[in-house]
Request: fold
Amino acid sequence: MPGLGSNADDGAAREPVGGGAPAALVLRELTSHADLHEVERIQREVWGLDDLEVVPNSQLRAALHAGGQLGGAFLQGALVGFSYGFLASPHGRLMVGPGLHSHMVAVRPRARGLGVGQALKWQQRSWCLERGIEWMTWTFDPLQARNANLNLRHLGALGVDYLVDFYGPMGGPLGGGRSDRLLALWLLAGQRSTAIVEGGRPPEPPVGARSVVPARQRLAAWAVRAASSDGDAEPVVELSGEPLARTAETGARVMVSAPPGAGGVAAPERARRWQDAFVRTVVPLLEAGYAAVDFAAGAYVLEPVDDRCEAGPTNL
Ligand SMILES: CC(C)(COP(=O)(O)OP(=O)(O)OC[C@H]1O[C@@H](n2cnc3c(N)ncnc32)[C@H](O)[C@@H]1OP(=O)(O)O)[C@@H](O)C(=O)NCCC(=O)NCCS
Reply:
């Protein structure tokens, strides 16, 4: 099995790593027991997980043995982040052939904002393409604007499915509310990620060729707006039910505001109101063939995407 690359001078260095990724960043596959135990420690440190929820060394080892992926990022010899994925079959729209489901990506707090997280994601992409795997999925909390920005804008992934209470009740700091998740789909050989690799820049605003809807019909409509611009903002549903269905028929671009602020909503009751607003708006749009194609001005940008292309989604 080809490795992930043992230092920053190999293939990984050609990937866009967030512009500011430290030159000293070393990316390599994690295989030793010591590495795997360190991954357990990072999970506790980053998510505050209790012992039942940490993916243990033994599970990581088994998944790796059976063809899974575990990449590490090192600064000055210390592991500062990792990515972990297991092999996947198509489980939704636009997925053709074998894929990778990325279950976790985490960067230690002291190394955040340096481009390490993005480097780990691009490294996962290379790992997949080397093995003929052309799509990757992962889930993220749609109330967290920072993650939406990373996934949709910096990486060029799409939001293709809304999963209500995906993990059920969770313990630790992640617990206390409903664990709704957006399913990100990254088409690794598609136009969006390739353009970012080649140009080192985020995808263009969603007015280009990736929609099947004629430009004249691409009217913007807001499905959800935030009532204020602070962290206490409430969601205001502007479009749902029949009007939303009519809008979807026109193929109009629809904006869905995320809660203001980067890090999501702390109060469970308020988080629930945002989640309910998303269920009333995002879910019917996804069912009508839309996907979240970008994150701009604090909002998800949803457009129809072409699932019907027999050769696979070439324009995404
Ligand atoms: C998400 C995470 C992996 C990002 O790693 P990172 O090394 O800080 O990210 P990078 O420096 O490569 O990229 C920065 C981008 O990531 C996004 N981001 C998400 N969470 C972030 C955080 N806590 N701090 C900084 N950036 C974050 C932002 O969009 C930022 O882009 P911007 O500068 O344009 O706002 C890291 O913050 C983390 O481990 N978070 C906790 C675990 C988690 O949420 N995992 C991902 C689930 S999808």
